[in-house]
Amino acid sequence: MTRVILRDGRAAEFRVAENTDRDREIIRALFRSASPESLYFRFFHVVREVSEDVIDRMVRADGIRDVTLLCMAGEEALGIGTYNWVDEERAEVAFLVNDRVHGRGIGTLLLEHLADIAWKNGYKYFEAYVLRENEKMLNVFLSSGYEIRSEQQSGTVHLVLKLAQTERTRALQETREKLAVAASLAPFFHPRTVAVVGASRDPVGLGHILFRHIVEAGFQGVAYPVNPSARSVAGVRAYPSIREIPEPVDLAVVAVPASQVPRVIEDCAGAGVRSVIVISSGLSGAEGEDAQNRAEIARRLRSAGARLLGPNSLGLINTSPSVRLNASFVPRFPLRGKLAVASHSGALGIAILEYASRMGIGISSFASMGHKGDISGNDLLQYWEDDHETEIIALYLESFGNPRKFSRIARRITQHKPIVAVKGARTERGASVSPTGSAVPPARDFLVEALFRQTGIIRVNTLQELFDVTALLGFSPLPEGNRVAIVTNTAGGAVMAVDALQNEGLRLAGAPTDLGTVALAEGYRKVLPEVLRDPEVDAVLVLFTPVGFSDDREVAQAVAEAVREAAQGEGPSGAKPVVANFLMTEDNFVRFIEAGDRRIPVYPFPEQAVRALAKVVEYAHYRRNPRGRIPDLPDADPDAARRVIRRHCPDAAGRAEGTEWLPAGVCEEVLRAMGIRTSGAAGESPGEVVRLTVTAELDPLFGMILLVERPPAASAVRITPLTDLDSREVLERVAGGAATGCGAAADLLLRVSRLVEEVYEITKLVLKDVEVSGSGVAIGECRIAVGRRGV
């Protein structure tokens, strides 16, 4: 069963039809509700009632050779899609969508999901026959992004779709999904009416606190308390049930005992509520009844087209002046700003917002995901991707639901908005106490590191580092390089800063400028503009330690004036970040120097300032580099490689479990189909020869990963598919200058990546004794295992 989001933001479920009386009746009811025109378009002749033989063939589909896919809203089918065997490479596809939900993208979603299933089961093409006057269905196919051939045949159009994913099909599917997800989350972040179910008269009750926070924040819509035993709550008339509220409710916040949650969810579904936040706990745990309760709550809401945040969420905030929603336990409404925050841990999320308020960092919106019964970090990222109120995204994550989708989404976002992430539950012990309730093994941390590196996410280890970085990102331009100038009044501070620069991979731009201890404010005022105008400087670190009667306020004002003066100059001289460290005896919060439209972060310690700057420099380098692409590879034919495997092992993709290692001769044939030669001239090169091992294997969470090792200790890992930039970075990491210039090695990695991505039967591939030099690549041994992938 797969959750899908329709074009209008409503939720639904896809599942494969089963050979049961229940599914026969569901399909029969769908056909009976269809208009004569819809039945005519589906079956090409006038149909009064679809025969039992047709329905029987649909429910008896084996799920591999033939498939019937239902789009469900509870017990009602919104649509049905089928594919049926034509030959080993082709299947015929057809759809019917309930007349009352036309225009919601169901036909397109059925096509995408059926194509994915068919591809994994070994098909290469879909065929479809569409009546010429059935313009809606023709548009579904023609706008899908798949490579299509069409032919007119006496009133019908014969279409042939190539099922292999391309950049165009991925881009179109991702755009459709992003727009649908954003529409589904709009009622959470922009509700016109909010109901708090469980809002009590007890001033320390959770429901009462939530309702008061909504009212006191100045919510711009209408808020209703729901309490069956109270006439009013906080001076506002209460209603005994959400069904009795006199207008449609956009957002319901549920804060009742866990035993009452199912009844409240039923009321929300019956009242047509589109968005539900479940604050209630007691529905956690990866096993047993609690997990079943969570799943049932999510299913019931999906059957009504609604979405769920939680359970065990601590709420949601939107600081937009047109909304001002504080449906959370955060006691003080945050400052308005451009930082969006998502957290698996509600308590940590609230601590993050408190810390942000103390630092003067504004928030655009906040969401506590809780146990991710429905809405995940991927959904929130897609909402914030085009949210004009959000410019920076901060995440506290403990687990990944779908890391491959997370990767695709994050790659898009980080090209124009930074994402800063703290990954908790990094160890098995940490994951075991995580309240997110995931039954999936914790992500291996080196794969998390690879994921973040490939997607341009700024990874930090602590919440303090998260704010150190966001303090700089929020108010400073990105640096053009890693050359850092130091202006200081203390040699000791400069020594510490220089050591920190080297440890963080930054370069010192000339000797530090030591202003001494006399006329400090004037010294900073005079020197800083000159340093900022220096074309050999990309960023500036200002260090100040009070000496004698020196006044930190005067120094701060001088720094602000100097930055403003530099910003008014011509060219890019004003577009350089400035970070500062004032060694004072106050608290350890980052503070700011106001400099016009710039705010200069002042860190408690030099190392703290340098570490934050290094993270931003790395992100700026990622942004400056051309975005990696998956290039066309001459003579690479994944279809031919797949035919080789299926000829040797016809049931590879369909087997229930287990793998089979292919004979050496078959492995070589597979590599040749991809344009990979197993022998070359690398060993004959007079230059240095680098020996590598290349392994592609299936991770239970991340899917196919590519590991490149250079004995005895150098290694690099990436999640497929690799871009041309990924392949170069891997070689740089494991072989340095010895193999970086060898295009053949990068080409090999790209071909292996494409092979394991597009030939779904492969579960593991190992290339041993790979010799790389300036003259080419030679492969000593190849081993390939095939079977059915679980991810």
Number of DSSP E strands: 35
Report the principal-axis shape: flat
Backbone structural class: alpha/beta
State the low-pLDDT regions, or none. Answer: none
Helix fraction?
A: 25-40%
Strand order of the largest sheet: 1-2-3-4-5-6-8-7
Spell out the blueprint of helices and strands.
Elements: E1 2-5, E2 11-16, H1 21-33, H2 36-43, H3 52-59, E3 67-73, E4 76-85, E5 90-97, H4 106-120, E6 125-131, H5 135-142, E7 147-153, E8 156-162, H6 167-189, E9 193-197, H7 206-216, E10 222-226, E11 232-233, E12 236-237, E13 251-254, H8 261-270, E14 275-278, H9 288-303, E15 307-309, E16 315-318, E17 325-328, E18 336-343, H10 346-359, E19 363-368, H11 377-385, E20 392-397, H12 403-413, E21 419-423, H13 428-432, H14 445-455, E22 458-460, H15 463-473, E23 483-488, H16 491-503, E24 507-508, E25 513-514, H17 520-533, E26 539-544, H18 552-567, E27 578-582, E28 591-595, E29 598-603, H19 606-624, H20 638-648, E30 659-661, H21 664-673, E31 690-699, E32 703-710, E33 714-719, H22 724-735, H23 737-740, H24 743-758, E34 762-773, E35 776-787
Parallel strand pairs: 5-6, 9-10, 9-13, 13-14, 14-15, 18-19, 18-20, 20-21, 21-22, 23-24, 23-25, 23-26, 26-27, 27-29
Antiparallel strand pairs: 1-2, 2-3, 3-4, 4-5, 6-8, 7-8, 11-12, 16-17, 16-19, 28-29, 30-35, 31-32, 31-34, 32-33, 34-35
Helix pairs in contact: 1-3, 6-11, 8-9, 11-12, 12-14, 15-19, 16-19, 17-18, 20-21, 22-24
